[in-house]
Amino acid sequence: MKTLTKLAALMATLATFSGCDWELKSRRAPENDRDNLRFRNAMAAYQAGRLDEAIKGFEGVIAASPLNATARFQLASLQHDYRKDYLAAIANYRIYAELAPKSDKRDIAVERARLCEEQYKTKVEYDIRTSENSGMVAELNALKDKVAELEDEKQELAGRIAAMDKSAKDLRQENERVRRLVGSIGEGESTERVSLDVKSLLDEEEDDTDRIRFSADVAQLMRDEVEESAETPLAVTPKEPHQPAAEKPEAKPQPTPNELYVVKEGDTLYKLAKERYGNVGDWKKIREANKEKIAPDGRIRAGQEIVLP
């Protein structure tokens, strides 16, 4: 559609040139178009190869003498061959043909005007195709960029969907595990099964039984010590003369220095300190003498060989 519009405009322009006689039919060109200083200067520039200067010179000649046919032909030739200004060349060729109808160059001017029309038509069609192609290429590139952008968004969404699927799967597995656990409790399974499930979640040591026994022994020894302190009278009652003196409690055997002792089932450092030294607070002595064998909290095991200082 654009091509037809431009071609129609071109044909209208050419029709205007052909239908306008420029009021030249009633006029006659000067007998000697070359007898002009401006014309000679323009021709000198043309022959010297200064074409832009020559065009400017011939335009000056025509401005001063519009009926100078020779200047018209020279200017049309330069506009046609050098400037590629086809419309201006067509106008000057046709004016020349009107000014010099009997000239030997009249047919040349008419033929060159027709050639200009063909060349101008080809140029217009080429410009239209180039313009349309450029627009299409730009639009295509824009579409490619948009496709690439959408592809990136697609990849990002795919990654997010995969992450959400994994989270949903993990959540379903966790819900199923909880459901089974709750179901097993509701169905009346043994407490042993439940305790095993709970124990699997805890990081317990193998000697939890010893630790519990150790704590119980400590508590019992502390209670015994408090009861003994409560039973001891604060004041000493004088003994009656006839009453024999109370027998001294039998002294407990004291261990020899660095005596080796094999721990028995049920032994604790509190118990050993109470039996050997008569004071549960001395359990630390035993622990200090066996730093490499006894843990800082004083736990011992049956069959363990320790030193009683």
| Mean pLDDT across all amino acids | 77
* Beginning-to-end CA distance, first to last residue: 116 Å
The class by helix and strand makeup works out as mainly alpha
How much helical structure, as a percent, in the residues? 55-70%
Largest sheet descriptor: 2 strands, antiparallel
SS element count, helices: 10
Unreliable runs: 17-31, 188-207, 232-237
CATH topology of the domain at 2-132: Serine Threonine Protein Phosphatase 5, Tetratricopeptide repeat
Strand content: under 5%
CATH class of the domain at 2-132: Mainly Alpha
Q: How would you write the strand order of the largest sheet?
A: 1-2
CATH superfamily of the domain at 2-132: Tetratricopeptide repeat domain
> What overall geometry do the principal axes of the alpha carbons give?
rod-shaped
CATH architecture of the domain at 2-132: Alpha Horseshoe
Number of strands: 2
Question: What integer value in Å does the Rg equal?
Answer: 62 Å
Question: Which sequence of SSEs, written as H and E, runs from N to C?
Answer: HHHHHHHHEHHE
